[in-house]
Amino acid sequence: MVLLKLHNTSSLDNKRGNIYCHVLAREYSEKSSHRRIHHILGNLIISGRRTFQKSWSQRSKKHIACDGRFAFFDNYQNCIDCGSPFPGPRLKFSVQRSQPGKIEDALIMEGYPETLSLANKGYRSSLFALVKGNVLLRLDMQDGRILDEVFVAPPSVRYKRIQWNVAEESFALCSTLTQTRPAHLLRQTGQEVMHLTIMSCMPLEFVCQFAITRKVFGRDAVEASVFLNILMVMHSTNYVRMYSLERILDKSKMDGYTLYQEFKDGSRHGVHPCHLKHNITLKEPPPCLFEVRCRNRDVMITMPPCYYVMWPIGKANGYCCYSFQTRQIVEGGLLEAEECEFEERVSLHADDSGRIVHMKNSQLRLLKLAAGSGGNEHRLVEDFVIDFSPVPKSPVVRVSQSGRVIKQRVIEDCNTLVDRVVLTMTYCDDLEMIIVVSTRDQNSKCDLYHLLMAGFYDNWSGQLLHQFVLDKSVSETLENSVCISLDTLTHICKTNKGGFECHVYKLLPLMDILDEWGISNQKGLKGLRTESAREMSCRQRHHR
């Protein structure tokens, strides 16, 4: 069979491309398809001839959320396209709905048409928005029109949080009970703690809905969540117990409820006023897979080699890495906390490598499990460290002519003190780079300001590829987040006054390409003239 060739197709490997090769290059996963332009984009970032310049900024009193290219203002009401090439913020769409009420939480599903393994049935990128009043909306990311509207629960239960169960496959809706009863009655055995609703994405389908009760999970149960088909129940005694959601579905799920199912009275399941029905009723606790007691009920579990990270109750001064087999701290598994740190920042790396990210005030550490002395034993070692701590200067010893050491009083000037603080970091899967945003205090004519800097580091070696100075700021920030999409870098921060700021930076050349080419040509002509002059003088000398 003769393949149709695409001529004049740019390629990184300088090979001629065709349709067959482009089809084979598609990924068989839920993640975004590989864009070959990211190799070129990575070279542009580290070349040193371009920099990130601020395109626009916008402030808001309400929460600002960002997911790569899009930024959401006014409680997800307005969607701004940060990747637009036009200057200034460009409104992508505004959510238009029939019933009033603010959006409590939202998720973006990136349903790419290049994905082959998922039966998306024509689905594209969508926004799942949880509206006040227990209404779930599925919006088209292109124009903001409502594709689906699901009535989740009655007003007696208030849903406020939406989170991924399995990324791009299913998500969970978590509720908090409305305080319509006295507090002493809510603490009694048998009272409901919260409700959970599991939905699948493509296509949108109802999976299950059930309640977490103190009669089943204990009188000290206070909260629950679902992640990777694991039901995690948190207790007031700092215990975290985990259960298999798949086992619960197999044993306790009742058949007969599907989304938009029509009943005999004419109502439809999930359409107002008929809310989603409970199809799981737990009368006894399911088998517990794992139990741990930790500080703040915060535990992180990684994929093989399996281990978990938590801050144990006791005398431990920081997070600890434990082995699943022995339930003991692995060698070198103590991540000591800094005394001046308000909140210890420990998380798992987003590249699914099982590494641990430990952010301190002036350094960022990446740790991994390495094989120990025994066959099955592991130890936690540093993969690499990005350190911003100032290098201490060696003291200068002054000696008189007679050999006596001259003592002197050292007063450090404020201009010599450089304080570099790590604000946040993110990982770009397409570029395989780590972006670290930090601030450095600067003094200019007795004016103190913070210099915002973004460094691009190699994901595997920690080598600094390039560093950019983003902006100067005079105000301190409480929360920071950064995300990158192609040539757009978006920084969102929360100020100490309670407001939110969104700053968008674009990757632009330092000078115009034509000007750069002209300057290089002038330098080349100047060099040729110099060489010709030297040759002429040498010939004259030889002739003499």
Pick out the low-confidence regions: 1-17, 27-33, 414-418, 512-544
Terminus-to-terminus distance: 75 Å
Shape: globular
Specify the biggest β-sheet: 7 strands, antiparallel
Counting H and I runs of at least 4 residues, what is the number of helices? Answer: 6
Structural class: mainly beta
Helix content: 10-25%
GO cellular component, one term: Cul4-RING E3 ubiquitin ligase complex
Pfam families: DCAF17
SSE blueprint and pairings:
Layout: H1 19-24, H2 37-46, E1 50-60, E2 65-67, E3 70-73, E4 78-81, E5 91-94, E6 103-109, E7 126-131, E8 135-140, E9 146-151, E10 157-166, E11 170-177, H3 183-186, E12 192-200, E13 205-213, H4 214-217, E14 221-227, E15 230-235, E16 239-244, H5 245-252, E17 288-301, E18 307-312, E19 318-323, E20 329-336, E21 345-348, E22 356-359, E23 363-371, E24 378-387, E25 398-399, E26 405-406, E27 420-428, E28 433-444, E29 447-458, E30 464-473, E31 477-485, E32 488-495, E33 500-509, H6 513-543
Antiparallel strand pairs: 1-33, 2-3, 3-4, 4-5, 6-7, 7-8, 8-9, 10-11, 11-12, 12-13, 14-15, 15-16, 16-17, 17-18, 18-19, 19-20, 21-22, 22-23, 23-24, 25-26, 27-28, 28-29, 29-30, 31-32, 32-33
Features:
544 residues, mainly beta, disordered N terminus, DCAF17
